[in-house]
Amino acid sequence: MKKAFITRRLPDEALAIVAAACNYEIWDSAEEPVPRALLLEKLRDADGVLCLISDRVDAEVLDHAPRLRIVANMAVGYDNIDLAALRARGVALTNTPDVLTDATADLAWALLLAAARRVVEGQKLIEADSWRYWAPLFMVGQDLQRATLAVVGAGRIGAAVLRRAQGFNMRLIYHNRRPNAELEAQTGASYRTFAALLQEADFIVVTVPLSAETRGMFGASEFALMKPNAVFVNVARGPIVDEAALYEALKAGRPWAVGLDVFANEPIRADHPLLTLPNVVAVPHIGSATLNTRIAMATLAARNLAAALTDQPLITPVVPGA
Ligand code: NAP
Ligand code: GLV
After folding, report:
1. Which of 20, 170, 173, 239 is least crowded, fewest Cβ atoms below 10 Å from its Cβ?
2. Domain containing residue 129: CATH number
3. Burial, 190: exposed, middle or buried (Cβ in 10 Å; 0-12, 13-18, 19+)?
4. CA-proximal residue: ligand 2, atom 4 (nearest)
5. Average pLDDT over the chain, rounded to whole?
C-alpha cells in the first residue's frame, strides 16, 4: 500500500476514505499547524500529502519528498503551492472547488451587511455601555436597495455573491480579465473595466484568486477612485489588498467601511492597525467555515488523495501531474 501524510486532524468521514486507499500518518492537532521540520521529515517516504492553505508546499518541501505524486489541498485557492515546482517534478495538485462556494458567498454577504449597517460597531457601543439615545441620525449606514454591487473576480464564488443580490433590488456589475456572457445571462450583471467598476460601485466584493497579477491589486490609487460611500469586502486573499494603503484610505474617508475575512499575514494579532478603526469588520478567514462545508472539503480532498494513490482519475485536478 502507498503512504500518505495528512497535515491536520480531519473529520472521520475523510479519514475513512484515506484509510481505505493507503497507509497514512497524521499531524493529529485540530488547531496547530504541523511544524515545518516535521512536515519535511514525514514527507520523506510519502506518496501523497493532504494539506491546508497554511502549509507552504514549495521546492524545499518537494526536494524532501522524492516519492510524492499528489498534493491534495483542502481549499479551492492554491496560492500556498508552488505550481512550477510541482510541474517540474510531475507532482499532481488537486483543490476543493464548488463545495465551498455557497458558504463563502454567504460570508461575503454577512460582511457586506455588517459593514454597511455598522453591526459590529453597534455591538461594541452597547458593550462599552455608551448607548444613550435613539436619535434621527444615530449610527446611520448605507442603503442596499438601488445601490450598485460590484464583484471583482466573478467566478464560482463571485457569481454566487451576485445571485444573492436578487432580493435587494441592486444594480450588478463585475470585472474579470474578460467578459463572461454566460455569467451575464445568469445574473444580469454587466461587465466593467476595473477602473470604471471602482468609480461606479457602492459595494465591492473581491473574489479573485491571488496571483502575480492580483497581488496588490487594491492600493492607494484604487481606493482613491472609490465613492466616499463605498463598502469594500475581501473574502479572497489578504495580499490582494495593500493593507497600509487601506488603513490610510479609510482614515481619509474612502472606502466608507470594509469587511475583511482575509489578511496579508494570517493570523493577525489584536494590535493590527486596521482593528483600531470603527468602520472595519474583521473575521478570521472563516469564509468556508460551516460544518457541512468543511466536511465536504475534507472528503473531496481525501477522495482526490485516494484516487491518486490507487491510480484512479483525479476528481478536481489543478495540475494533472505526470
Ligand atoms: P474561480 O471560480 O476560479 O473564480 C475566480 C474568478 O476570478 C474567475 O472568474 C476569473 O475570471 C477571475 N480572475 C482571475 N484572475 C483575474 C484578474 N487578474 N483580474 C480579474 N479577474 C480575474 O474561483 P472561486 O472558486 O470563485 O474562488 C476564488 C478565490 O476565493 C479562491 O482562489 C480563494 O483565494 C478565495 N476563497 C476564499 C475563501 C475564504 O475562506 N475566504 C474560501 C474560498 C475561496 P477570468 O479568468 O475571466 O479573469
Ligand atoms: C479558502 O480560503 C479556500 O481557498 O478554500
Report:
1. 20
2. 3.40.50.720
3. middle
4. 77
5. 97
